[in-house]
Design brief:
By secondary structure, the chain is of the alpha/beta class. The chain has helices spanning 5-15, 65-73, 96-99, 112-117, 139-144, 163-176, 180-201, 227-234, 253-259, 274-282, 291-295, 303-306, 312-323, and strands spanning 25-29, 42-46, 49-53, 60-62, 80-84, 104-106, 122-125, 148-151, 207-212, 237-239, 263-268, 300-302.
């Protein structure tokens, strides 16, 4: 079903404006020469799209930083021919060397032409923005070109997202790329780090935390469905909006004041800056009496840490130190 790479590019350039489609799809990703690679086939039932792989993808493109870092965590940089959307999402230090060898297709989301020019056989996004209609490369459009796709399963989960979802995602990507052993080892290491945080915290009293994403008139925050809620809990805190059954709801400053957070966790994606967000918090009369404003307790979490990915564990470790420094001396 997948066309040859030169033919793929030719078809894409001539048909960019004509492609359409929606709903679920079933695709087959054949092995070179028509055979089946060892450990395959692997079937991926992913957010309404079912793909059967008979060999690992060889030319992957990632569209979000958490997808990029997950691939690099599994040592898959040699199978990557492009990445993107890192303008406000710097790569983690741990992955910098491997990332340096991966071409950047665009600082934001690439156009369909830029994406197809990389001749990918697999496109991976960590959240739905990567496959939005505005970018010109929805999953149905890429399927028409014979390009397999995968969306982080957190994006189509109805309930609350957590670390088990992240570990399941890593396991799935490991299976698709034929590196199940690496995925198992990585998941085990990340679980061990979370266990060590739990042991060091012991039975601490959870600290009430408000996550400030953005917004001056009405703030956007992390709700109960976001993985960030579990991250805060594992760090010895409690998301004060964990009862809101959304991922990123908009609330009011009056609601923030009523819930009296002791800490305000600032979601840092560089623009607007952390400093400007703190200035907004300090200049908002409705929350002037909030305990976090009195103490200046404003730790940060990077965007690529708060989206499901291996660095989410880094964020738990750091936030635990921020909330309970006495437990880490």
């Amino acid at each position: 079903m997948i066309r040859s790479r030169p033919a793929l590019v030719a078809v894409a350039v001539s048909a960019v404006l004509l492609l359409a489609g929606c709903g679920s799809a079933v695709q087959d990703a054949p092995a070179p020469g028509g055979g089946t690679a060892e450990g395959f086939p692997v079937t991926d039932d992913n957010c309404g799209v079912t793909t059967t792989y008979t060999a690992p993808p060889a030319r992957a493109v990632t569209l979000t930083s958490n997808a990029t870092e997950l691939m690099l965590e599994l040592g898959l940089q040699d199978a990557m021919v492009g990445t993107s959307y890192l303008k406000n999402r710097p790569i983690g230090e741990k992955y910098a060397e491997a990332y340096a060898g991966v071409p950047v297709l665009a600082p934001g989301q690439p156009s369909l032409e830029q994406l197809v020019a990389a001749e990918p056989d697999f496109v991976y996004s960590g959240y739905p923005d990567g496959f939005s209609e505005s970018n010109g490369h929805t999953r149905p459009r890429l399927a028409e070109l014979g390009i397999d796709t995968h969306l982080n399963s957190e994006s189509c989960r109805e309930g609350r997202s957590g670390f088990e979802d992240l570990f399941g995602e890593m396991t799935r990507i490991g299976a698709i790329f034929g590196v199940a052993d690496r995925a198992e080892a990585s998941v085990g290491e990340l679980r061990g780090r979370l266990d060590r945080v739990r042991e060091q915290l012991g039975s601490v009293e959870p600290v009430p935390v408000f996550v400030y994403n953005s917004g001056a008139d009405a703030p956007r925050t992390a709700g109960g469905k976001a993985i960030l809620t579990e991250m805060i809990e594992r760090a010895g805190g409690r998301n004060v909006f964990d009862d809101v059954a959304e991922r990123w709801p908009q609330v009011s400053w009056e609601q923030v004041a009523q819930r009296r957070p002791a800490v305000i966790l600032i979601y840092d994606y560089l623009e607007p800056s952390v400093e400007s967000k703190i200035a907004t918090l300090r200049s908002t009369p409705a929350i002037a009496a909030v305990p976090a404003l009195a103490t200046g307790a404003f730790p940060t979490v990077a965007l690529s840490e708060a989206q499901p990915g291996p660095r989410s564990v880094d964020a738990v470790e750091q936030l635990a130190r921020d909330l309970h420094p006495d437990r880490f001396r």
